[in-house]
Amino acid sequence: MPVPTPPTAPTAGVPTIVVVGHGMVGQRFLEALADRGLTAAAGTARVVVLCEEPRPAYDRVRLTSYFSGRTPEELALAEPDFMARHGIELRVGDPAESVDRQARTVTARSGETFSYDTLVLATGSYPFVPPVPGKDAEGCFVYRTVEDLLAIEEYAKGATTGAVVGGGLLGLEAAGALKGLGLATHVVEFAPRLMPVQVDEGGGAALLRTIEDMGLSVHTGVGTQEITADDDGRVTGMSLSDGSSLATDLVVFSAGVRPRDQLARDCGLAVGPRGGIVVDEQCRTSDGDVFAIGECALASDGRVYGLVAPGYEMAQVAAGVIAGQAGAFTGADLSTKLKLLGVDVASFGDAHGAAEGCLDVVYADSRSGVYKKLVIGRDGTLLGGVLVGDADQYGTLRPMTGRVLPVAPEQLVLPAGAGAPVALGPSSLPDEAVICSCHNVSKGAICEHTTLPEVKKCTKAGTGCGSCLKVIGQLLPQPEDQGLCGCFAYTRTELYEIVRTLGVTTYAGLLDSHGRDTARGGDGCEVCKPTVGSIIASLAPTVGASGYVLDGEQAALQDTNDHFLANLQRNGSYSIVPRIPGGEITPEKLIVIGEVARDFGLYTKITGGQRIDLFGARVDQLPLIWTRLVDAGFESGHAYGKSLRTVKSCVGSTWCRYGVQDSVKMAIDLELRYRGLRSPHKLKSAVSGCARECAEARGKDFGIIATAQGWNLYVGGNGGATPRHADLLAQDLSDAELVRLVDRFLMFYIRTADRLERTSTWLDRIEGGLEHVRDVVVHDSLGLCDELERLMADHVAGYRDEWAETVNDPERLRRFVTFVNAPDAPDPSVKFVPERDQVKPDLDILAGPVLAVRTLEGTPS
Amino acid sequence: MTTRTMDTVQDTRTIQLSDGADWLTVCDRALLTPGRGVAALLPDGRQVALFVDRAGRTYAIDNRDPFTGAYVLSRGLVGSAAGRPFVASPLLKQRFDLETGACLDDDEVTVPVFAVRAH
Q1: Rounded distance, CA A33 to CA A322, Å?
Q2: Average pLDDT per run of 10 along chain A, which is 861 residues long?
Q3: Measured at the alpha carbon of residue A153, what is the angle toward residues A150 and A159, in degrees to the nearest 5?
């Protein structure tokens, strides 16, 4: 066939493929072409891409992450050299304006005309704005592109309240963005629940509670009737269908999307009655030379898919067909898992239980906002489900859809810790189960590879939404080398045993005797030095090493925080946290802290652990500050160490009318007992005086809650990024029984945990879990308890305050200078600017590579 | 109570830095702890991070951590990987080769190196 090619084309004589649209699906299509060798670089095709937006394809699914600090560049999908490498002509900011199917040309906005042999429409969709009066007022936005985000961000600077029309997936994303911009945020949803497409009534209710708890105002079951504006045409509010009105400065419409099919309509291609370019199973439109893929296409099953995964599949199919391969897109799974405003939401398969005779298995805990529903067929087949608040099982449940579950379904929805929860491991999945639904990759395909980077490269699994990464990790063979780092082939636990049994007292000794051959005699690394330093410090009194962290070689092992006994902050200054056991402090001591902070110009803030953090000290100020604190009776709070931080307490039975035990006294006793204990990671604790649990003990590594009979001990709790409630280890303990059990628990943890492994992950990791730990520390199944108690007794007897030892030793104080050649010169890069009556770091001073400072000659010496 | 490990022969050498032309005496060699760094201030206001490794070799690189802008590289931990000495920034832990200044975790980042000797 005659191939009309522009004279300038470097690829004369080969067919031209014109792609209209460079969104996520457009880019995926280009990658699929490249995979099949259909590019100019391969000499097989000229590929021209017309892109409307001013930037190449980016990850629209993660658009909201722009507000959490990602730049538009970081959202880019294609590697920077992708177009050049494949000789693809990408024309950014030059959308297609018209198509002449007779002449087989596309004309772009720039006026340039491109002849095509094959045309691929990937024009995506546009946000639907309901036709309400006032919808064009200033301050009305949609939420689709980076440019939309930038406009919202700019306008929000002058706003205090924002409203989102639409409580679906994108609407909640937009609401999260508005909240993140500091606006009081409303969500208005016409349906009676949030996310009506994905979740059922119960799931919507759980979602609603959690989202309202975050401070968002949700209005369901009401429509938007009008957007009101002031005389300048700026949004002032909206009136709702229930007769109420809402004052708002800004409105974001997120009421669904519609396929962008205008270009197709204009050139006479068939479109569906409700929009969408009609395509067959090969993604061909009514014109055999024209394809349509993604959200603009009306697939052969009569649906327009608004999710990226089906779009990717269409891109693969179309590229394959163009390359002469067989393939078909017949419809897709609408399973989704996402994190909206920090809440996990997932739905898969027949989430609404539409199949005849199906049964629901539901677990709902409205207190914690968890809702789980599995839809089970009559024969026990898993048909689908909804998970809100805790969607960890999505990765294994979704691939099980259409199969009979290997365990009773109710066991899968119960929370961990209740009854006998069953973890359905990925090993129980059949080979053909789809693990990555974004890229339609089966377990069998993943198991052909051995490393995650290889899986991503060869199958693309895990490169879409990422919700399957955890399962992929469990499917891959575990690396054989469990060694701590490049210097040691042993794990931390093994190194602990070596140090303990051989009585090793130096890092260099351990490296030269037990390091890898290539590492012996070397300098170690930043991973093993602090780890071994911590092990030796934990065992110091027992193996006969110095317990002082700055002694001799130990000084060179510690991270800077341990080295200077303070916490390094972003501008190179340090913060100081004196120990305040149990959070109890006298007025006199409070005054001393205030005076020290005032005299040294420190920023002060109350910590989450019932202490006071003093920020902004220079290295050379640390000894001066601590001299005053030590004189007033303060000790190091070890906020810098992998060691016990605090034991929080509520006020307990001495004051509180509900208290049943003296929680403050117990917290002080425990904090003084375990202070300075070096461990694999930091340790936090709390003691509550009654079951009301005001000290939040169940969020701690070891938490104690008073009962009328004594104390309950909970272990393995955590806050932070992966919160976990502590598990009950033993109950109704006397004071002495409690202390003895905590001694054993902590020493067993220190002995067996990995580097930087908190008790919560340790408890989940070790074989046998909580039951095993209980056997060892309560029932003494390994006969270890005497030794564990002895190790702790050694620690308690050997404890000395690091800061008191430091300020009383001129030799040790010598390290606290900024410059070795100008001990009296303060660090010129540590400067501060005012902020809310205190100070904050002056970061401008750090921005350039050259510091404008006093020179050496100008400093006193 | 505790005994400090000391060389039997006191090291009386000094550490000298070159800023291109002359050698500048910075401190006594004995002030450096193997595996640990110190910072020095040059006459023109630049800051240098000085290190000595286990074998007694000295190194000097710019004290500014290019990833955060803070002048803290002297407070990082020294290690060796494949026989080459490095320091890991105490802030975000990127590693820098002590001989070339090249960042081992980002090909595009390098910090200046200075000539240093024990004399």
Answers
A1: 9
A2: 40 85 94 92 92 90 75 82 92 94 95 95 92 92 90 92 90 87 92 83 83 88 92 92 92 91 94 93 95 94 86 93 90 75 80 80 79 85 85 79 77 59 62 77 85 78 73 75 85 88 87 89 88 87 71 68 89 95 97 97 96 96 96 95 94 94 97 94 96 95 94 93 89 95 96 90 85 91 90 92 91 87 88 94 78 39 31
A3: 150
- Reading the block at residue A769, the tokens are 């879990």
Cα–Cα nearest to A717, from A775, A777, A778, A763: A763
Contact A480, A454 (CB under 8 A): no
Question: In 3D, which of A698, A689, A643 has the Cα closest to residue A663?
Answer: A689
**What per-residue confidence (pLDDT) applies to A552?**
64
Backbone CA torsion sign across A650, A655, A656, A660: positive
Secondary structure in 3-state letters for A76-102: ECCCCCHHHHHCCEEEECCCEEEEECC
Which amino acid is present at A344? D
Tell whether B34 lies on the interface with A, counting CB pairs under 8 A: yes
Q: How far apart are CA A458 and CA A452, in angstroms?
A: 10
Nearest CA in chain A to B94: A526
- Give the closest residue to B75 by CA, choosing from A386, A595, A566: A566
Residues 6+ apart with CB under 8 A from A305: A294, A295, A297, A299, A311, A314, A332, A334
pLDDT tier at B4 (50, 70, 90 boundaries)? very low
φ and ψ at A569, to 5 degrees? Answer: -110, 175
Alpha-carbon torsion A141, A145, A151, A154, what sign?
A: positive
CB A10 within 8 A of CB A40: yes
Contacts of B80 in chain A (CB under 8 A): 519, 522-525
- Considering only CA atoms, which of A87, A95, A67, A90 is closest in space to residue A77? A90
Set of chain A residues whose Cβ sits within 8 Å of the Cβ of B82: 518
pLDDT digits (tens, 9 = 90+) for A356-387: 888 888 888 777 778 888 888 888 888 888 88
CA A679 → CA A509, A537, A748, B77, distances in Å?
A: 21, 9, 11, 20
Q: How far apart are CA A673 and CA A662, in angstroms?
A: 17
Contact A821 B93 (CB under 8 A): no
| Alpha carbon distance A755, A533 (integer Å) | 12
> Which chain B residues have a beta carbon less than 8 Å from that of A568?
72, 75, 90-91
Site from A821, A831, A854 to mutate, B interface, most B CB atoms within 10 angstroms: A821
Residue A817, Cβ neighbours under 10 Å: how many?
21
**Alpha carbon A651 to chain centroid distance?**
35
Helix (H, G, I), strand (E, B) or coil at A110: coil
Burial code of B21-60, b = ≥16 C-beta within 10 A, e = fewer?
eeebebbebebbbbbbbbbbbbeebbbbbbbbbbeeebbb
* Element holding A121 (H helix, E strand): strand A118-121
The DSSP code sequence of A149-203 is HHHHHHHHTT-SEEEEE--SHHHHHHHHHHHHTT-EEEEEESSSSSSTTT--HHH
Instruction: List chain A residues with CB under 8 Å of B33.
Output: 555-556
- Residues A489 and A586: their CA atoms lie apart, in Å, by 50
Contact criterion met (CB below 8 Å) for A8 and A40: no
Task: Kindly tell me if the per-residue pLDDT of B10 is higher than 60.
Answer: no
Collapsed DSSP state (helix, strand, coil) of residue A124:
coil
C-beta neighbour count of A183 within 10 angstroms: 20
Three-state DSSP state, A18: strand
Count of Cβ atoms closer than 10 Å to residue A459 Cβ: 20
Torsion angle of the four alpha carbons A269, A270, A276, A277, in this order, in degrees rounded to the nearest 10: -50
Question: Letter for the amino acid at A187?
Answer: V
